[in-house]
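JOB MANIFEST
job_type = single_chain_structure
chain_count = 1
residues = 447
[input]
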Amino acid sequence: MSNENSLSGVKRRDFLKILSLTSIGSLVYSKELLASKFSTNDMSNVVVVYNQNATDKTNKTISTKVVQSMVDQGIKAFTDIAEVGEAWKSIFPGITEKKIIALKVNASFQERNNGTHQQVTYAVANGLTQMDFDGIKFPDNNIIIFDFSANNYLNAQGYTKNDSNKGIRCFASPGYSAEDYNVAGIKVKLSTVITQMADYLINIGYLKHHSMSGVSHCLKNHFGTINSPLNCHDNAANGVSINNCIAALNELEPIKLKQKFCIIDALYGITNNGPGGTPTCAPNKIIMGQDIVAVDCAGRNLLKTSGMSQNDFNRTTHIDIAATKYSLGTNDPNKINLMELTNTTVAIESIQEQIKTTELLQNYPNPFNTKTTIPFYLASTEHVQFIIRDYTGKEIIQLVNKTIDQGTHKLTWDGRNVSGSDVPNNIFIGELKTISYNQSIIIQKVN
């Protein structure tokens, strides 16, 4: 098979991953071929899930069942994976059942509905416990819900303290790093939950106004991961603004490397007089994605349309600083792909059951370490080949070459070549071929 043909079925977003993880000079494809097939402008995907039944505005209550459905549908839509556990697995490179996932929430005040709602956080945790590792479910005790604030603040938002070896753990940060970190010239210490305990981090902020930074969403939520958040507010002595501190804090390596997903709880929201106070709006939405800047952009736009003033909107410069100075994500609306799910009642699984054409789906987890699953759907019984190639087009292994019945199927690759030897960490192309279908995906192997 020619190199050009092996590239032709690769989806644009997957091909861009090749460009980001390999050098153009190392590819054997000509520049003309690359330019003719793909644009170089990538997009940041953000999912916004809306359900009008998530809250009861009269009684200020939240439907746990509806919120669970919203979180489940959101992660499945974001990953394009139909099973909740497998969708979450795809977010965490190298995940095993022994890893620890921390959920950073916002619980800085005692007013009810002023921080990350426990219904949203536990919906995420419930999804994580559906991750399966050869028949072993991800242990709920390997999930830690935490914040800077005292446990009574967590309790005020509906969380129950648990530092035992059973169940989902939840507590205020137990300590801070011995090491000092530099945040725009201010020394801070990071929570040991991040530096010592957690392998991965999910940031779950809340939709609310802040009198100094305009908004307090995911980027500012990390003020709750340091020992001295007040020192990072406007500091006249050092000439440092709160917005510079917020952006610089998110650049710190332990946060930047471990944070894999960001969520804004926008079931309720505070449009003015924040960060304290009570909700002033009820958007009934959950915003999620991997690009923290793009997620916060979606959050501030929602807060603006919900009633936040233009002056407060103009104060949200930490979002733009995080994008332009620290390259933590994009604030360009032309590069943010908003996927909006509205009162969805049809499960993604049901949609896939209605597929009438053959389709190759993305492997999971991706990137992977020891093995990955490759799902595909056949519209009819056909002879199927699935070949894995390196990015030069060289064949590594053929996973299947036989006639397969109509329906949904899964292949597994253990990262070995045809000789049974482990292949080095790299980018690979997985190609599904039938008489009438030819499509490729990008598969990444990591440590």
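[summary]
Confidence is low (pLDDT under 50) at residues 1-6, 11-41, 345-355.
The chain is about 25% helix and 25% strand.
exit_status = 0
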